[in-house]
Amino acid sequence: MREAISALPYAPAVKVVCNSRAASGRKTTTSMAAYPTPIRLFARSATRIPDSTSKARRAARAYLFGGANAYEFTAMAPEDRVKVALEQGAQVHPQYRDAFETGFSVAWARAPFTLGCAADWTEEKRAQHYDNLCAIDGRIALAGEHASYIPAWQEGAILSALDCVQRLHARAAAP
Length: 175
Hints:
Helix content: 25-40%
CATH topology of the largest domain: Polyamine Oxidase, Chain A, domain 2
Order of helices and strands: HEEEEHHHEEHH
Structural class: alpha+beta
Number of strands: 6
Distance between the termini: 25 Å
Shape: elongated
């Protein structure tokens, strides 16, 4: 298991969340969209969240920067990441900057105890290490998106946890 853990690469990623005023009566939906070059945004999602101080609603837009762009964004200060996200968002939605209120960012590679955003399996690495990573090793059993065939998604983490519980149950029930 130790060798499998050491061999598993993690994908670099940066998330920038920008809170902005939602237009009155305008519906904000969740969407994921890839943008062509020169826009470096990897994905965008928008969600309406209630504002506790008024009946107005706010939209939170989250940007994920993956691949080579993640290294560039990881090297930036958090406030600079927000600034670039606003510049990039304004290329798609010109009114975006005017509605902006506040923002923050996280670079997974800089978070303590985290090597990146999600497992970044190659077919070769998976063939070589996946079974060992998911095997019960003494009193240790791993579960999570990194130990699944659906990395970077909650579904992968849940399916991995269910598989882990089934394997633990089979081991405990064995004669």
